Amino acid sequence: MNWRLAALRNGFQDATAYRLEFLFEVLGSAFVPAAIQWVLWYAMFKIGGAHEIAGMNYSDMVQYTLVSLLFTQIRGGDHDFELQEMIRTGQLSNYLLRPVSVVEFVYIRGMAPKLLIAGVCLTLGMSVGLFFGMSPVRIMGAMLMALIGNVLHYQIGAALSTTAFLWEEAYSFLMVKNMLVSLLSGELIPLNLFPKNMQWMWKITPFYLYVFGPTQYALGHWTHTYFLEQLAWSCVWLAAGWAFIKFTWSLGMGRYLSHGG
Amino acid sequence: MKLVQYARIYGIQVKNNWVREAVYRVNFLTAMATDVIWIGVELLLFTVIYANVPVLAGWTKPQVYFFLGIFFSSDALFTTFFQRNFWNFSDLVNKGELDILLTKPVHPLFLALSRWINITAIFNIALGLGIAIQFANPAGFAGGWKWLLVAAWLLIGMTTQILLRFAFSIWVFWTERSWAISRLYYQFFQFATKPDTMYPKAIRYLILTALPFAFISSIPARALLHGLKWSEYANVGGVLLAFFFLNAILWQTGLRRYQSASS
After folding, report:
1. Residue A19's pLDDT band (cuts 50, 70, 90)
2. pLDDT band at residue A24 using 50, 70 and 90 as cut-offs
3. A33 and chain B: CB distance < 8 Å anywhere?
């Protein structure tokens, strides 16, 4: 347990050592995607004169954008890139000699700044949400789902990073995953805008649990029962992700040739 | 004479990069696949949007696809020849590697910005142009000799990216680590992925002046499809010149501040 706390503390220190960088990152990742979303709604409703699209009017869309901001901050993280870099450069060898799981260690250290942001978003969501009639219980539930989404995202990334054992680089695979996530998580547009014949695209991945799911629940568009059902699904995905990591890492370690000194 | 010398150096850089890329063949292929998926995601976003509305801020679906074709080609040009160099620019300064470049008998910026070439991205130039050609007719592009203008606008788009990326990277002389500012650049870069007429007035003004991301593909696509007013052409020239001089001043000031970190 001690090493986990130490890794978390290490991650906090790393994030706060470059405070200006950290602030830039948070601001950039929060407001630019929101501005892009708003631009689309502006073009559709204000310039295009539409009144309702996929059952949502302009204010519904703006509300979705604002609430989704709380969860887009928690999704993702680049620690899977760190794993692939360790494999590629042979740095992984340093970790294999230690009595800690390298996959877990990298996650905990990388998760620290996300936890900090999650705390801020939760406080902000619960306090500001009160003025707009949003239930604090729903926001807490939604944040829980977003945090599970963060773990899932890492699990997929950690498994994909093992392709670096085969081809020395997993960068491209991780980039592809991030691109798909940006659209299929609901960060760019609410997923109910997908036409019926294209809905399967986001339903077959767990990515909707990162942003779309939490936002729908926080806004009261999902019932408690449906939310619990989706939470159960996220646990199933977690178990599958864990098995996926075990499988890919055991395969990868069998092929590992350290280049480190 | 000087030009020949620069061309020879660049030729050697291209050869070195080709050898490096050829060694990692799988990476070459996966990087190409990544780009195809990125293009697919962007196209999918607009496919979803156009499934709900017939016209978006005066742009029909084929016109937006034509715009995306120009955008992909223009961005791929920058990615091929400059992107990696900008990612490594921060290291040049904070690891003191700039020292070596400053001692060479060619301009240090030429070496700093031409060392890494991403040959994989050349494929994207063709892919983007393919998309533009595919949708040119339904988008209302006149074609013929105007395809020559496409090449000119792609160069303007690439120049815009170089000047903007430089303006974001140069702060490493003051901040020591420019990773977050680089990320911020890519956040703002999202503004280039949509036609400028979609934006509200304030943002539109911003991306046509202080942060001219609209010059990467939106202005080129508009110019090719409908033509621009003379004031808009003047704006493009004026803003790019202003950025060029601003960057030159920042570079000189930054160099004066630079303290080698190497031993």
Report:
1. low
2. low
3. yes
| Contact state of B34 with A169 under an 8 Å Cβ cutoff | no
The Cα B215–Cα B245 span in angstroms is: 18
Token representation of residue A103: 């996959």
Q: Please write down the HEC assignment for all residues of chain B.
A: CHHHHHHHHHHHHHHHHHHHHHHCHHHHHHHHHHHHHHHHHHHHHHHHHHCCCCCECCECHHHHHHHHHHHHHHHHHHHHHHHHHHHHHHHHHHCCCHHHHHCCCCCHHHHHHHCCCCHHHHHHHHHHHHHHHHHHHHHCCCCCCHHHHHHHHHHHHHHHHHHHHHHHHCCHHHHCCCHHHHHHHHHHHHHHHCCHHHCCHHHHHHHHCCCCHHHCCHHHHHHHHCCCCHHHHHHHHHHHHHHHHHHHHHHHHHHHHCCCCCC
Which of A18, A25, A35 is nearest residue B183 as measured by Cβ atoms? A25
**What gap in Å lies between CA B83 and CA B72, rounded to an integer?**
14
With CB atoms and an 8 Å threshold, state whether A54 touches B44.
no
pLDDT of B263 reads 45
Position A20 scores a pLDDT of 66
Structure-model confidence comparison of residues A100 and A51, the more confident one: A51
Mark yes or no for CB contact B58/A47 under 8 Å: yes
pLDDT digits (tens, 9 = 90+) for B75-126: 999 999 999 899 888 888 878 888 888 888 889 899 889 888 888 888 889 9
A253 at interface of B, judged by CB pairs closer than 8 A: no
Taking the CA of residue B44 and the nearest CA in chain A, the distance in Å comes to 9
* A39 in contact with B, Cβ within 8 Å: yes
Q: Is the ipTM of this complex over 0.85?
A: no
Q: Where are the domains of chain A?
A: 2-254
User: Of B27, B37, B56, which is closest to A167 when you measure between CB atoms?
Assistant: B27
pTM: 0.81
The pLDDT, as a whole number, for residue A261 is 40
